[in-house]
Amino acid sequence: MRLTCPFCGERDSEEFQVLGAAVGPRPNPRAEDAAAQFHAYVNLRENPAGPHREHWYHGVGCRRWLVVTRDTRDHTILDIVLAAP
Amino acid sequence: MTGAHPFRLPRGGLVDRSRPLPFSFDGKVREGFAGDTLASALLAGGQTLFGRSFKYHRPRGVVSAGPEEPNALVELREGAWREPNTKATGVELYDGLAAASQNRWPSLQFDLMSVASLAAPFLPAGFYYKTFMWPAAFWEKLYEPAIRRAAGLGRASGLPDPDSYEKAHAFCDLLVIGAGPAGLMAALTAGRSGARVILADEDFRLGGRLLADRVEVGGLPGPEWAHSVETELRALPNVTVMPRTAVISLTDGGDYAAVERVADHLPKPAPGRPRQRLWKIVAHRTVLATGAVERPIGFGGNDRPGVMLAGAVRAYVNRFGVAPAPSLSVFTTADDGWRTAADLFAAGVEVDAVIDARAEVAEAVRVLGEETGAEILLGAQVCGVAGSSGVKAVTVSRDGWRGRIPTGGLAVCGGWNPNIGLASHLGHRPTWSDVIAAFVCATPPPGMSVVGAAAGAFGLAQALAGGLAAGAAAAVDCGFAARLFDAPSASDEAVELSPLWRVEAPLGKVFVDLQNDVTDADVDLAAQEGFQALEHLKRYTTLGMATDQGRSGAVLGQALMAAMTGQGMAAAGAPGARPPATPVAIGALAGRHRGRDFQPTRLPPSHEWAQARGAAFTETGQWLRAQWFAGAGERHWLETVCREVATVRSAVGFTDVSTFGKIDLQGPDAATFLDRVYINTFSTLPVGKARYGAMLREDGFVMDDGTTSRLAPEHFLMTTTTVNAARVMQHLEFCHQVLWPELDLQMTSVSEQWAQYAIAGPASREVLATLVDNGFDLSDAAFPYMAAGSLTVLGGLRARLFRVSFSGERAYELAVPARNGEAVVRALCEGGAPFGITPYGSEALGVMRIEKGHPAGNELNGQTTAADLGLGRMMAKRKDCIGRVMAGRPALIDPDRPGLAGFRPVDRSARLRAGAHFLPLGARATSERDEGHMTSVAFSPTVGCWIGLGLIARGPSRHGERVRAYDPVRGGDIEVEICDPVFVDPEGSRLRG
User: How many other CB atoms sit within 10 Å of the CB of residue B544?
Assistant: First the structure.
């Protein structure tokens, strides 16, 4: 599987690590329901059959964190952008 | 037809008769020719019996001439090189090849296990599931060994694979899989257009069916045309021709894996060369030109030696110049079978009968048979075969008449199945085509086109035209202008067929899957018992689960099931194939990543010195670290470690701590960033100071710890534990790029740029003074505990110094550029000699950290909070940090949680064991009474007994209590006393000097 890193170009998937769903933003720790918000942020995940936004790390390349949109049904990569523009 | 080759035809074939190759089979010396396969050479020598079948031990011979072979499996090579279950039809003959038949006892001709055939009524589908149900203990001791002896196939050598393997990557515009007429045309067209082409074929000679059939292309005999195309392709710089290369899988995104058999056709690989090479091929476009596999027909005794696929018979006659039997008959339900009769006749082999299940055939087809002088039987079926290790006669029925035709062999043609397994690796299911009565690939994966016989285009002219069009289209898709030319002339052959799966009145067992001994009765039984879905049929009967993956027989089984259930083939569908397409040696998948090279070994800068010094080594992640340095006369590692600890505590020692992770952080917001990732505050850390820090995961558990120093107002250096270095780096990058991109800082790993040494002990300052250049003040006033600074050592060498301590003694960590590490080690030995300095290893380091109660890997186990580890007070109250909110979850602040404590055996001579569980005294050993477990233990020469750290409920408030340390795995059950985790110098006076 190949991914086109916005910084390095097309690279083999072996160069990347996937973290999981790109959830966020990180909740406000001072919010009154911070505990509930962090529980959702850390533990609750969708499991879609279709496009899925994920955080990937190009550890063996530019060390950029990426937001990869992948179709979970056939691994088609629909979009790759830098997590930090 | 005499001598070493009684069944070799007097002329013809693509073997080199001037190059005889001696080889052995079951210990007997044989001879073949260059260009033979093991199967063709054995057939030429008159060998019809190749092995015994899996379940019934029935005699079996060769069925096919390619990788679809279900029967002719042999053990190849000897000793550690022995390779079981190798298909004789795919083994290229070489000088000195040694092969043995398998699954027979005591010998191939006389097999005692064949009594299993008499017990056949007791071995139906699902037999194992139904019979060997209980008692469970019988499985391991009785059933499994017995089944394995009776069934099973070849024997693995049981020795490490002595060959080497390697992996390689290749990139191309067009990957052409299969070098038959369609594949050659596709490669030629795309290659002439300038596209980068890889042409891969499993065979050692390119041409596919052109080698096996008597056909002409462009006025040349098939093999000559194939050779001329290969010559042109090899001359093109943009084309790579890869014979002996099987494409085994297609994975997501269009990556193909292929195994190149670099040296399988040689007695031994050339020096420095691998036996096989695993390729990862990245292709923009693919042409699947893998041809088709002939399928059998279900009749009684269709597994007998001498019953072969009709196309394979042509291959042996035309390509290898071998007559598979003294005389043969043909049983067909397709026009193609008649060409086998014609080719046998042309080669001078007698054809006894041509039996076609169809009542009528085209005139042109009928003539092919009539010319041979054979008896022609239309609308007839073969019911059974007489003979055990060879065919003696066949029984034929027609319109209620039944007769016996003496013949020496039977060529069977039940039609052809496109070889499209690879196209279904991504989940694209084959669909049934009534036009060719076979499964085809209607929706190939992205970027792939299927051509030739693989696409159901069975005629030669069709295949050539299809290959040309696909090659041109692929070149255009990749941005090249297609150079168009006319396909070479070739005749289009008659390809009519009317599928016949099972004859009406079979005599004897009808085999569906020869390799797994699945019969039509097994399929019927599966249908009756409700295992009708194809995936159930497959698992219940093992149909198609052998190494041939049911290439020839699976469709037959599916058709029988479809008939039983009354579904059509289209509705029943076909299961997809799974990778690998052909069996692959585990060694090829591992490549060079085996044994010590399974993962990289990282060596700290002092490694060679430590080796010369006689150190013992241990693995920490990928790092190899010195574990201890045995001194003269020391006979036990514990003796050495105690001496190292005692020397550090009384004088001075040094150890390599280069393996710790080091991360350099710089920028105006670096301090703010550290405040957010550590539980404690770093923005208040003065320049020139170090501070111990702990960081959490967002779920509130401790992730890592270490010291971080402030080298300048906007410049910090973080250290991490050895094993977590990469994980922490990734985490920090995530926090910066994803969570807080507005913070202005940069970070990079400098773990491998700096060699770092801890110098510890009462005399450490004096030793260090011999290294530092004049002018650097090491006094406690100028460089106190937790100071950090830059300096030069050994006459101008750039260095960093940190007064941090893991051992609890006065200690310094000196860092120099990695290439100077060994020089510093030698200087420490020299400068420290007057003070009695000793190098110490990771074991003494561990003993001293347990003596000081510092948590390390065993305590930072992903299940502990900062409070559990006694670090709760470090958590800054007024700021947020990663994990802070979730660390406040009720269960994580439960006062009954296991917390860090020290442990001593009540009987001071007793040994502690890490992993022992704590129970109240007198309590039964049940999990409900479990209070925690011992995490780290060491024999402490300082305390004079074994000591331990552990996590026990309410640990910090229970000092002085006694509990039971229960270790049933190693038979340990002792009483221990809970104590403060800091065993040595709890006030920390030694640290500050």
Answer: 27
The percentage of chain B sitting over the pLDDT mark of 70, rounded to a whole number, equals 95
Residue B743: closest C-alpha in chain A? A84
CA–CA separation, B186 vs B177, rounded Å?
10
* A74 vs B: CB within 8 A: yes
- Rg over CA atoms, chain B: 38
Side chain identity, residue B140: E
Note whether B660 and B719 are within 8 A (CB).
Answer: yes
What is the secondary structure of B520-580 as a DSSP string?
A: HHHHHHHHHTT--SHHHHHHHH-TT-STTTTTTTHHHHHHHHHHHHT--HHHH--PPP-S-
Query: Where would I find the beta strands (DSSP E) of B408-510?
Result: 410-413, 416-418, 431-433, 438-440, 448-450
Nearest CA in chain B to A57: B730
CA–CA min distance A58, chain B (Å) = 10
Contact (Cβ atoms closer than 8 angstroms) between residue B271 and residue B445? no
Interface touch B884/A2, C-beta < 8 Å = no
Q: Quote the minimal CA–CA distance from B167 to chain A in Å.
A: 14
Dump pLDDT digits (tens) for B873-900: 999 888 999 999 999 999 999 989 999 9
Kindly indicate the confidence band of residue B1, based on its pLDDT and cuts at 50, 70 and 90.
very low
Determine contact, residues B550/B543, Cβ cutoff 8 Å: yes
Q: What is the pLDDT along chain A (85 residues), one digit of tens a residue?
A: 899 999 999 999 999 999 999 998 999 999 999 999 999 999 999 999 999 999 999 999 999 999 999 999 989 999 999 998 7
CB contact under 8 A, A30 and B880: yes
User: How far is residue B29 from each of residues B23, B87, B334, measured CA to CA in Å?
Assistant: 6, 20, 40
B131, pLDDT greater than 60: no
* Residues from chain A contacting residue B739 (CB–CB below 8 Å): 24-26
**Shortest distance, CA B169 to any CA of chain A (angstroms):** 11
Please tell me the distance from the alpha carbon of residue A4 to that of residue A76, in angstroms, as a whole number: 12
Nearest CB partner across the interface for B252, out of A1, A55, A59: A1
Q: What's the start-to-end Cα distance of chain A, in Å?
A: 25
Domain A2-82 -> CATH class: alpha beta
pLDDT, average across residues B394-406: 94
Contact B738 A34 (CB under 8 A): no
Binary contact (B730, A34; C-beta < 8 A): no
User: Can you read off the two tokens belonging to residue B322?
Assistant: 């071998």
State pTM to two decimals. Answer: 0.89
Smallest CA-to-CA distance from B287 within B469, B489, B481 is with: B469
Which domains are seen in chain B, by residue range? 1-154 (3.10.20.440), 165-292+418-477 (3.50.50.60), 296-413 (3.50.50.60), 512-583 (1.10.10), 607-659+753-848 (3.30.1360.120), 661-749 (3.30.70.1400), 894-992 (2.40.30.110)
| pLDDT for A71 | 95
**Count of pairs with CB atoms under 8 A, one residue in A, one in B:** 65
DSSP states along B116-169: HHHTGGG--TTHHHHHS-S-HHHIIIIIHHHHHHHS--PPP--S---S-EEEEE
Q: Which residues of A touch B252 (CB under 8 A)?
A: 1, 74-75
pLDDT tens column, B239-297: 999 999 999 999 988 899 999 999 999 988 999 899 999 999 999 999 999 999 999 99
3-state secondary structure at position B401:
strand
Distance CA B613, CA B627 (A): 12
Question: Among residues 10-49 of chain A, which lie with CB inside 8 Å of chain B?
Answer: 12-13, 17, 19, 24-27, 29-30, 34-35, 38-39, 41-43
Average pLDDT over residues B596-612: 94
Distances (CA, A) of B442 to B223, B253, B439, B477: 31, 19, 9, 20
Separation in Å, CA of B738 to nearest CA in chain A: 6
